């Protein structure tokens, strides 16, 4: 037996957004520049597990989520879903595949059409799937009908010439499924609402009548209603308060246990990933810098960026109050990035070799199942994240 | 003991929307002493932003209106100051830093023009072209606290008396004078390469940089009170850490008091000296940040702290707070937390519990004792 | 059930907004009068368009509410008889422009993926629109009328021909604003077909600004037609079918405005009232069509208990009520 096929597999996936050139550049023949939003990411998501994707803005995590859910088409690499290549799926095939992967968007206000009622919003995916099923059934019937006609035309001929050849089997004539009525959609929506802890009698309300948490539950219900294998959760709790976030995260985990759905949890919130994920990939400027089992990775981070990120998360622990954060500099631009480690300009452990070529993602010897993209991984592995904070009196304000 | 810079007494603010009416802030009292950082933490809709906007009277009136209470800033009751005189207070007295640095900066102006506007206004006030806010009966004594590093510009006008004389000398300032001063402020907020940044437009700057510009703008008017409303909530974690570090450094350097509003318990824990926890328009717990976060004495604070995830999936579900934040147009009677509270008794539905010291025998700390608005505050440490 | 409840909401919002309620009543009244004049003119109009009353240049009286002119025609009757024509012109021109321009605008806004037929069509539509927009529409309409000949139909055709580009611009702009909103992406991710997205999510969210603009536009068309009528190329007055612009032109140019000011009063007032009514109605519709503002008006009058989740929806948002706060992270998509 070979290793089981993962639910989702990304192999060196890339996405570039070309920029429009200024007229002067076109005249001078300057090459068209591009935003390298995702630059060679390889990850897998197993059946029923949660992969957390942590990153700051500009890390490409949202773009990656859109590539997985095929809202964008990758410009390089491969995306496989249950072993099937879906990288360049299009048209009807793509729409049919969508029932397996659903998305919960980061903006609970904007991702719900303000003019539709709850049952229309949540029922939208099943309506779309229903239309597609009916269209496909009609198409199949047409095909079979013409195949039968052809067989009838050819049969007498064939019977005379070569009776030994059996006729090709013609599949059973499919019936067109009955049209999904509004009543039926409402029933399905009414049935799904309790799973996200919404009252089933809110079918006729508008999204603006819900609080942020309620809207995010609606988004979740919309994703769950077609029973997908994978849900891409794009910052599902970023706009929510801590108490509501706790409710939603608990709910997500219960749903996963009950339905075996896999999650790709995309967020900048380390605490949410810690609580909800099985494995974590840390992204920085379009690349995965570190990838491994959640507890292991968060407790013993190896890559300097992971350490810097963990040190930066404010803790409700007043003991840390007098500490200063040491990492300087902004997140650089994604437009035609220079070769070399993307974190090099901000990294305190940078050496010249870091700037020469992209560090490869290699298995880290000291931690089980961990891959790290740092050429000094073994040397910096034991530096604690706290060293990115310094005591107040030791910190000298940089004066120019 | 010195006088507080700001004293909010029993402030209530009501919003009228359509046919409905709700009290966003109810009976809030607060004191801010010079050089201290007061944190206000709470969930969406708890009234913390309304409180922040009410102090410099920035909230839209109507629909908002101050029902009762006083806002005494340096001896003057701001509730009674006519609206047209408020800009005077806002500039030199109270500075504001907002959450969305992109919306708060004018996209049509370069960094220089953004900051110089504030400096100019202050300059005109110093030389008496524009009237300046004098405060009330209690003159604020800046001389007791030493000014450091930032240079002459900052020290000069802070000292009353000396300010006017000096300022008159350079009554006419050239553009290059202003440019120098703007650069000084950019350096103050630790902007590398200020000579380049000064000529850029807001959209050319990163989020962290924009927030630094906002801070520089607020500081350039030399306020004695800075109100920061979720100043780092729109920033990335590593950038937030940088800005928080900057703010912590500046607290020591410019000696303004800060009212720091945030929904993030971690941010408050790292910046504030004292913290007020707001729930449904009321401050339900108040005290030194160490004490409130280490041993909360209100069930809500305790549960809020527990709801922040710090465990892993395999460790079992998070402790969330059952139910929802109450609708403020129909708030629950008595203690507003009682419908969600695990230790609620019948008495909690009666009168609202006062914000009382949790340990009446304890030492009266200079920054005020730990207070909780719960009848059963002594039971809270025993909660799971 | 749904229809009755939305009618109820319609009434409640209208009642809460006295000015637009007035506009609504006025428009309803004007339409009713127009219908009556077409069906049974004798009920409201005592004289025919060119009927001589025998009273020459009389000032307003009970018998002749707006007086009579030098031909002894009753001005009130002529003004009323012009109403169906002027109203019809406004609705027909604005409606035709809405349908034609709106459809083109939808195409131009929605289909813009480079290299497709749709994108090519979009570009051509927009360039043609630009060409039309770069002419002053009134002068263009005048020129076309001149070329086609004097009369009501040529004028309607001419104005219609210059009117649709505004709707292309408006609709395209709205489509561009709506089509990148997260819920459109969400629908696409759910597997909804493009055509359905266009109708269900894009068009539905355009209706409000478009209908409001359309309502206001009826007034503008009326004024434009009257202007052309005033210049004297649209209709002849006095004639069998009076028209307000032509009436104004005739009485103004007959040089008796100082002696008989009431002659211009009636057509002028008619244009003013009609345009005002549609403006007020347009403003009211803006509130009615948006479910978010709708709620602000009916809150407190609806008496069913909200489910627990929606607590704090409106009052909950902090600083400014009724606006929702956005997400914290702006995301990575450039």
CATH class of the domain at 101-262 in chain B: Alpha Beta
- What is the CATH architecture descriptor of the largest domain in chain A? 3-Layer(aba) Sandwich
Low-confidence stretches of chain B: 135-169
Report the sheet with the most strands of chain B, covering strand number, pairing sense and barrel closure.
8 strands, mixed
Q: Which protein chains are joined by the largest interface, and how many residues does each one contribute?
A: A-B, 54 and 54 residues
Strand pairing plus helix content of chain B: what structural class? alpha/beta
Quick one: CATH class of the largest domain in chain A?
Alpha Beta
Strand content of chain A: 15-25%
Give the termini separation of chain B.
39 Å
Alpha-carbon distance between the two ends of chain A? 64 Å
> How many discrete structural domains of chain A?
2
Order of the strands making up the biggest sheet of chain A? 7-8-9-4-10-11-14-13
CATH superfamily of the domain at 101-262 in chain B: P-loop containing nucleotide triphosphate hydrolases
CATH fold type of the largest domain in chain A: Rossmann fold
Shape of chain B: globular
Write the layout of secondary structure elements.
The complex is a heterotrimer of chains A (400), B (384) and C (334).
Chain A: E1 8-18, H1 23-28, E2 34-41, E3 44-45, E4 50-54, H2 61-68, E5 76-81, E6 84-85, H3 91-97, E7 101-104, H4 118-122, H5 124-161, H6 182-192, H7 212-224, E8 230-234, H8 242-259, E9 262-267, H9 270-276, E10 279-284, E11 287-293, H10 294-299, H11 304-312, E12 323-325, E13 362-363, E14 371-372, H12 377-380, E15 389-391
Parallel strand pairs in A: 4-9, 4-10, 7-8, 8-9
Antiparallel strand pairs in A: 1-2, 1-3, 1-5, 5-6, 10-11, 11-14, 12-15, 13-14
Chain B: E1 6-17, E2 20-32, E3 37-41, H1 48-54, E4 64-73, E5 76-77, H2 86-92, E6 94-97, H3 101-104, H4 111-126, H5 152-158, H6 162-169, H7 175-188, H8 194-197, H9 207-220, E7 225-229, H10 237-254, E8 257-262, H11 265-271, E9 274-279, E10 282-288, H12 289-294, H13 299-307, E11 356-357, E12 371-372
Parallel strand pairs in B: 3-8, 3-9, 6-7, 7-8
Antiparallel strand pairs in B: 1-2, 1-4, 4-5, 9-10, 10-12, 11-12
Helix pairs in contact in B: 4-7, 4-9, 7-9, 9-10
Chain C: H1 2-16, H2 18-39, H3 75-110, H4 117-133, H5 137-148, H6 152-179, H7 182-189, H8 194-231, H9 244-253, H10 262-289, H11 291-298
Helix pairs in contact in C: 2-3, 2-10, 3-4, 3-6, 3-8, 3-10, 4-6, 5-6, 6-8, 7-8, 8-9, 8-10, 9-10
């Amino acid at each position: 037996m070979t290793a089981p096929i993962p639910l989702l597999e990304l192999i060196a996936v890339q996405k570039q957004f070309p920029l429009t050139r200024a007229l002067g550049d076109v005249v001078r023949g300057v090459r068209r520049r591009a935003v390298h939003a995702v630059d060679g990411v390889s990850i897998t998501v197993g059946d029923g597990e949660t992969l957390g994707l942590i990153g700051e803005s500009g890390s490409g995590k949202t773009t990656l989520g859109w590539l997985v859910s095929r809202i964008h088409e990758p410009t390089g690499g491969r995306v496989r879903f249950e072993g099937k290549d879906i990288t360049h799926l299009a048209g009807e095939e793509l729409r049919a595949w969508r029932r397996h992967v659903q998305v919960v968007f980061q903006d609970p206000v904007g991702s719900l059409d303000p003019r539709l009622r709850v049952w229309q919003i949540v029922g939208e995916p099943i309506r779309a799937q229903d239309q597609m099923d009916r269209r496909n059934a009609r198409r199949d019937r047409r095909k079979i009908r013409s195949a039968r006609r052809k067989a009838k035309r050819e049969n007498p001929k064939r019977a005379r010439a070569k009776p030994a050849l059996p006729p090709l089997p013609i599949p059973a004539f499919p019936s067109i499924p009955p049209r999904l009525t509004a009543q039926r959609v409402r029933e399905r929506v009414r049935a799904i609402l309790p799973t996200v802890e919404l009252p089933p009698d809110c079918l006729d309300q508008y999204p603006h009548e819900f609080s942020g948490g309620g809207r995010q539950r609606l988004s979740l219900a919309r994703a769950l209603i077609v029973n997908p294998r994978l849900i891409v959760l794009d910052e599902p709790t970023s706009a929510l308060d801590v108490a509501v976030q706790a409710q939603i995260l608990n709910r997500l985990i219960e749903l996963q246990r009950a339905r075996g759905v896999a999650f790709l949890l995309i967020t900048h919130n380390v605490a949410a990933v810690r609580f909800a994920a099985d494995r974590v990939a840390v992204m920085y400027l379009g690349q995965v810098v570190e990838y491994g089992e959640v507890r292991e990775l968060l407790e013993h981070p190896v890559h300097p960026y992971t350490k810097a990120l963990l040190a930066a998360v404010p803790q409700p622990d007043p003991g840390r109050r007098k500490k200063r954060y040491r990492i300087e500099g902004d997140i650089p631009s994604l437009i035609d990035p220079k070769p070399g480690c993307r974190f090099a300009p901000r990294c305190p452990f940078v050496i010249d070799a870091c700037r020469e070529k992209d560090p490869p993602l290699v298995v880290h010897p000291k931690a089980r199942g961990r891959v790290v993209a740092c050429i000094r991984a073994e040397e910096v592995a034991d530096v604690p994240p706290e060293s990115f904070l310094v005591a107040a009196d030791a910190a000298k304000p940089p004066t120019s | 003991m010195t006088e507080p810079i700001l004293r909010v007494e029993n402030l209530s603010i009501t919003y009228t929307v359509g046919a409905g009416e709700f009290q966003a802030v109810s009976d809030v009292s607060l004191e801010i002493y010079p050089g201290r950082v007061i944190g206000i933490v709470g969930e969406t809709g708890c009234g913390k932003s309304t409180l922040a906007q009410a102090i410099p009277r920035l909230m839209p009136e109507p629909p908002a209106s101050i029902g009762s209470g006083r806002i005494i800033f340096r001896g003057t009751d701001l509730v009674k100051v006519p609206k047209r005189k408020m800009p005077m207070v806002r500039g030199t007295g109270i500075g504001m830093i907002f959450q969305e640095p992109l919306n708060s900066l004018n996209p049509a102006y370069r960094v220089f023009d953004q900051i110089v506007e504030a400096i100019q206004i202050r300059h005109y006030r110093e030389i008496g072209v524009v009237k300046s806010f004098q405060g009330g009966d209690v003159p604020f004594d800046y001389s007791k606290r030493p000014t450091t590093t930032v240079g002459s510009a900052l020290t000069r006008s802070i000292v009353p008396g000396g300010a006017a004389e000096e300022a008159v000398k350079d009554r006419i300032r050239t553009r290059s004078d202003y440019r120098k001063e703007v650069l000084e402020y950019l350096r103050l907020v630790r902007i590398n390469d200020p000579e380049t940044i000064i000529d850029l437009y807001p959209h050319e700057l990163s989020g962290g940089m924009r927030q630094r510009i906002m801070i520089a703008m607020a500081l350039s008017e030399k306020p004695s009170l800075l109100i920061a409303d979720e100043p780092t909530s729109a920033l990335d974690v590593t950038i937030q850490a940088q800005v928080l570090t900057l703010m912590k450094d500046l607290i020591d350097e410019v000696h303004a008091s800060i009212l720091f509003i945030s929904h993030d318990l971690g941010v408050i824990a790292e910046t504030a000296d004292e913290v007020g926890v707001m729930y449904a328009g009321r401050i339900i717990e108040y005290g030194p940040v160490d004490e409130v976060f280490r041993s909360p004495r209100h069930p809500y604070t305790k549960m809020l702290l527990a709801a922040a995830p710090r465990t892993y999936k395999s460790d079992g579900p998070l402790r969330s707070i059952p139910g929802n934040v109450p609708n403020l147009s129909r708030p629950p009677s008595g203690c507003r937390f009682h419908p969600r509270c695990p230790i609620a008794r019948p008495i909690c539905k009666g009168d609202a519990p006062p914000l009382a010291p949790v340990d009446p025998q304890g030492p009266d700390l200079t920054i005020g004792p730990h207070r909780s608005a719960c009848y059963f505050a002594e039971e809270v440490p025993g909660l799971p | 059930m749904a229809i009755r409840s939305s009618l109820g909401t319609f009434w409640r919002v209208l009642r809460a907004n006295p000015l637009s309620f007035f506009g609504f009543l006025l428009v309803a009244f004007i339409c009713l009068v127009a219908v009556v004049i077409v069906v049974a003119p004798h009920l409201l109009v005592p004289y025919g368009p060119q009927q001589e009353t025998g009273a020459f240049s009389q000032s307003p009286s009970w018998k002749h509410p707006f007086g009579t002119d030098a031909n002894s025609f009753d001005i009130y009757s002529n003004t009323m008889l012009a109403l169906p024509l002027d109203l019809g012109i406004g609705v027909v021109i604005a409606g035709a422009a809405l349908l034609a321009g709106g459809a083109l605008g939808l195409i131009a806004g929605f289909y813009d993926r480079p290299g497709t037929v749709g994108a090519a069509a979009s570009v051509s539509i927009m360039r043609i629109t630009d060409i039309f927009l770069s002419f002053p529409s009134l002068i263009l309409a005048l020129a076309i009328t001149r070329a086609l000949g004097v009369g009501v139909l040529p004028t309607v055709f001419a104005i219609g021909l210059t009117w649709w580009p505004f709707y292309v611009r408006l609709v395209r702009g709205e489509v561009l604003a709506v089509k990148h909103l997260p819920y459109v992406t969400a629908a696409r991710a759910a597997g909804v077909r493009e055509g359905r997205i266009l109708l269900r999510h894009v068009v539905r969210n355009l209706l409000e600004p478009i209908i409001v603009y359309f309502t206001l536009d009826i007034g503008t068309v009326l004024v434009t037609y009257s202007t052309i009528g005033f210049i004297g190329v649209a209709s002849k007055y006095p004639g069998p079918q009076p028209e307000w612009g032509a009436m104004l032109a005739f009485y103004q140019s007959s040089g008796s405005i100082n002696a008989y000011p009431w002659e211009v009063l009636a057509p002028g007032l008619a244009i003013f009232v009609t345009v005002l009514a549609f403006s007020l109605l347009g403003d009211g519709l803006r509130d009615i069509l948006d479910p978010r503002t709708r709620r602000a008006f009916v809150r407190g009058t609806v008496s069913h208990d909200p489910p627990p989740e929606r607590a704090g929806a409106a009052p909950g948002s902090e600083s400014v009520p009724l606006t929702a706060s956005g997400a914290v992270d702006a995301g990575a998509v450039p």
